[in-house]
Amino acid sequence: VSTQSTGSSGINAEYGIIPIIAKSDTVSKSELDTFKANIMEELRANDVEIYTFPTDDETVADVNKDMNEMMPFAVVGSREDVKVGETVVRGREYPWGVVEIENEQHCDFVKLREMLIRTNMEDLREVTHRKHYELYRRGKLKQMGITDDGAHPVSLQETYEQKRAEHLDELQRIENEMRQNFVNKVREKDLELKRNEKELAAKYEGLRKENNEEKKRLDEDRKKLEDDLAAIKKKKEDLERANAEQANGQNTKSKKK
What we know:
By secondary structure, this protein is mainly α. The protein has five helices and five strands.
């Protein structure tokens, strides 16, 4: 974990941190000592609080004190079994030799396992519950808007009922808001349809008037045309009658002669 992203209120507030150096067989002993010192200095500089083995129990005080000074633990991991002489061990085989996982001269794996599982398991569980879980629990309650200072225990049942009531109120508010929005949209759509209906009615009325006026004009033109045709026909008949009378008059004069 990068210490740049942690701090006294960061990851160490929620977890018990035990620093280790993985693949420690990639550096020499002198480089490893320097690396350990640099890591601890960086953790202190960034206010990263790590788990320390308790020294208040006289039966394990000396051992735990030595283990605290050994941090961070330099470990090597492997899933392979390697034969060393007549013994098969868990380790990593290189051209120059074998790194044994459970050899305290090669790495700190055995010390770390001893400290965590056999010597300080109960203390680690207690610290995790008393400190880290308690901080986690209070943080979660704070996110829910509940303040728990430790002096006044919070009833989870009351908290649940309160949050449930608030949630139901919020759901009801959202439902009312959605219903009102739906009613408003229906009203707006109804007004829009009525407006469109009026526009269509006005357009239809305008077209109807134009059609009536056009029909009236055509009727007038037709009547005028019929009158003109009737006048032309009458003139033609009058002309034919006049020509016939003139022809009859000439025929009568010819007979008299």
